[in-house]
Amino acid sequence: GLTAIFLRGGSHEMAIIMLVLSVIWPYAKQLLTMALWFVSTGRYSLQQRGRALFLLDAFGKWSFYDIFTSIISAIAFRVTINSPQDLAFLPPRFYHVELITIPVWGIYANMIAQLISQINSHFITHYHRKIDEEALLRHRHVVGEISEVESISSDSSCTDSVVSFRIDDIDNKSGKGRIKHKHLAHNPVKTTNHSVNDDDLRVALHSYQFALDWGEKGQILRAGRATNAIAAIIGCLAFLFITCGCILPCIQFETVGITGLMIEAGQGGAPAKQKFSILTMFGSLWNQAVFLDNTLDYIGHIFLICIFGFSMIFVPLLLASLLLFMWFAPLNSFHRHQLHTFIDILSAWQYLEVFLLALIVMNWQLRELSEWLLNHYCLLSEPLVAMFSAMSNNNILSVPNAQCLLFVSNLEPGAFLLVIGSMMLAVLHHFVLHAVVQQKKSCERSKYSNRRDSVDINCVKRGKDRRSKNDLIKAIHIRRPQFTDIYRNFLVYEDSMK
User: Which domain of life, per UniProt (predicted)?
Assistant: First the structure.
């Protein structure tokens, strides 16, 4: 495979990256995903399984690294040599040489397997979300039963009125996700639940009021005008930089040696250099399909162009637009949840970072790789080595051209624009989705936790809570950093907005 080729060619760094991302990671991801699919929630909680599945789904795209590397190599190693047209002693089109690297079934099989794995991951994540939503609904039902208790008789013992529930405690035998709970032992006095159902309330994240879990009670944070302006600028610049990076050249390939001189002679003395943007890479793949003029090659190259265009151009630009829409547009809970899920799926198909890594590593290792693959055979011939040495010593050929063939590459401005745009998109993605998660948790807490907490507080005040110290320690969960913690310096208190 490519890993063995890179090792023999001296590109050890590229071989290590290829081994990790293209050999170990795809199989590890698939095995971990299947293990999470079959493991019970008694061993691995629902929340832990969700976090693991979302991480595997988000990082599954890195297994495409070897495919990008193969395609960039095929574009770089494309050489066309034409006979000079300005030499009278040579007949027209006296010679024509094409050096071409053809993608074959191995690349297509690998890519199809990666796509199937990614789609399979989406299905498993979808069913996990369904289970999570069912558990949440049953959790709301239990909390609703608690909220019906308005008061508890002073003669009753709170230790006998235990309400216990766990979202993760699912009856695996029934397969229905039944949450086990005990009802209050007292005679409840039913009252009307005054909790506000704001599922249909349309609110924009940029104006949402985030309640702090720490500090003084009632403190509210929200994004200021400067923060909203920064978010809009980052989103627009990410869109602009990615668009320009796809149009402008991102890498240049130069052919050095006797082959390079022959290319220059056939081009009327023009340098043997080619600059490629993402769009011109697609054009090169199409020209290669036209040159091969085979139905299967047409299908394969069109498939490559469609996958790369979708994952490197369409998805990043759509993602930047949707993130801005989610931040500024007023949405209700249902539509925001649907858009959040759709953005998670799009993020898994956003391959721009993978392409940039392959491009940077290929630029770093192309010289050594081409020297081993192509120039190595010329160096094995002693007469050729002696001839090149004599021509170099007599200043007939320059030292770089005293060889058969060597490729030299340089990154162009388009690559730097893509890197900056990709980083801006990642920052905007992190910013907006953390706000969405905290907003969703705040809504759930405000609707279903007030009366439940009041019952627990009454029991604690009476001094009747006889839970052991170990049980209390187990009930304490480490609080993860939230949106208001990570981006605290970009938020202002509600009082300061007035």
Answer: Eukaryota
Question: Which residues share a beta bridge with 96?
Answer: 82
60 within 8 A of 350, measured Cβ to Cβ: no
Mean pLDDT value of segment 91-112 = 85
Give the DSSP H/E element, type plus range, for residue 378: helix 376-379
Give the residue-averaged pLDDT of 270-292.
Answer: 92
In a domain, 442, yes or no: yes
Which helix or strand (DSSP H or E) is residue 406 part of? strand 406-411
Q: Tell me if 101 is assigned to some domain.
A: yes
Tokens 């590229």 belong to 14
Type and span of the H or E element at 211: strand 210-211
Q: What is the pLDDT of residue 467?
A: 53
Could you tell me the residue range of the domain that residue 52 belongs to? 2-148+160-186+205-497
Q: Is the pTM of this model over 0.85?
A: no
> Does residue 125 have a pLDDT over 70?
yes
* Burial letters 156-165, b for 16+ CB under 10 A, else e: eebeebebeb
In this prediction, what percent of the chain has a pLDDT beyond 70?
A: 76
d(CA 40, CA 35): 10
Amino acid identity at 126: H
**Residue bearing tokens 């399979």:** 120
As for how many domains the chain has, the answer is: 1
Residues 329-337, mean pLDDT to the nearest whole number: 90
Mean pLDDT of 170-190: 40
Provide the sign of the torsion angle of the four alpha carbons 294, 99, 313, 316, taken in this order: positive
DSSP reduced 3-state for 410: strand
User: Looking at the domain assignment, is residue 155 inside a domain?
Assistant: no
Whether 266 is in a domain gets the answer yes
30, 173, 10: which is closest to 113 by C-alpha?
30
Least Cα distance to 490 among 332, 327, 322, 336 occurs for: 327
The two three-digit tokens of residue 290, written as one number: 């036209």
Confidence of residue 167 (pLDDT cuts 50, 70, 90): very low
